[in-house]
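pasting for ref
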Amino acid sequence: MNLTGLPDFGLAAPAPGLHHPFGGGAVLVLPDRLEVASRPDGSPDLRLTLVRGSAPGLPPDPYGVLEFSVLAECPVEDALTALRRSIPGVTVRPTPLSSGFLWMQRFSTLESPRAVVTDGLDRAALSVRVPGATAALLAGLLGGGAVGVGTRAVMEYPGVAARLPVAVTFAPEQLLPALGEVVAREDLVARVASGQLPIEVDADADSPAEALAAAVADRIRVRYGEPAVTADGRPALRLPAEPPVGHVRWDLRQPLLTYRVVPLASDALLPARSWADRHGVDALVESRVVRPLDSGAVDVTISANLPPSPVGALELGVELIAPPKPPRRPQPSRALRTFPLPPDAPPVRLRFAPGEPVEYVSVTYVVLPGLAEPLTGPEISHADDTVRLGPADFPVEFVPVRADRPVLSESTVRVTFRPSTPESGVAEAVLDGDRPSVAFVQTLGAGTLTLDFSPLDGSAAVRVGPLPAAALTVTPALLPGHGPQSVTVRTESLGRVAVDLLAQDAPPAETTTLLLTPVRPSVGWGYSPRSVFRPGYRWRVHGADAWSDVRTGDLVVV
């Protein structure tokens, strides 16, 4: 993965919830709340399926399947307004998420954190099987229950580890057991900072203990840890039960991809209940009768939270394989599914011998132009009837780009992807109201994105980029012409001068007049453009008939 543009954990944050980018670019904004995602028709992306046998006493026992997606919402407008006060022209963008956990209160089967699959941007999907009683209670709540259902999540996001003029040496078989199997990140940082762990520090200069501890924790996460949650809901790392043997030396001056977390909370079911009040609960809750399967048959549900509209791949899919188990089952059982899945895709069926444990593997594949054989992902073992896939499960890298509705209400966006290998070829896609998203597929984590905005009102086109080829949500805050603008008006006259200023397309009644004097020869003026694509202003000496041409820039000299 290209590190340029990712959150730089080695730089002091400009404000809580914000990160400077590594190597330059737009400031990154962390999400601060969860919302249920919406489908293209505006309905909540939430479905509850109530499953029962064809007659009382026949299998399966009643159960439910809850499937929903949540969006991690970023306060980009608030962040932009705050930053523009001190950094004129700064732009911001949402921070993409990579993985996480989600759990819900009031339901014992949902109170334990469950891994969610992200689309590489801001959408996380969860599919969970619940007992029949829990499913009935959920159905009642969606149908108008007044009880709140608190939803909490811990989401990971990628960034660049802090760098320090320090090297550390340790033995993993001593350090990791001293931390425990699951350690909260805050506890990990505190214990490293205490200096009581078996870590030797070789420093060229003194480094604050907290900064050193954060840099070491960043590297422990990517080298040894897997994301986890403590029993009391704190972000944590799960460390290997059998750590590697030997001595490790880390040079903390080197940039390294790592991950940090952001906690989020909401009542995720509230928007779904509101929608059901207006449109009826039947669109969110369905019942399904299941007939008994032949002995040994298992229906496997496959869900995939993948970026829409992939470009650069001829086919994406997954194969399920139950290896042969002679003599009772001498042949393998296989099932194939290609993506994207239709909205009501049925499960696939694997066949086992009667009484045989359900054990199979999933292998993703991608067919790329010019390659004789498809690329295949690793084998992932399963022992239940659900396969959940995300972008990280495939043997390629997805570069998802989505333009938000406010951008597409004023323009179309041509996205040009240039991979790091010229032989792969340049790919383009035009985003508009009918196609707001695209995902470019590449085998190497490099390349660039260029965005060309074509305003619908005929205003001049605007180009942003080239940017690093990485997950990107395009909001108006990515454009310099959006949000508060500031101009300094200065005079070199020895007398008093009055200056009129007016934002582009604003009516004359909104003219601002500034008075410049020898005592105050420089005055600031702020304004908000009426359109992100018409962000200019005009000025004139007060009392003059003619205005200047529309201009941009942050300085007027009279």
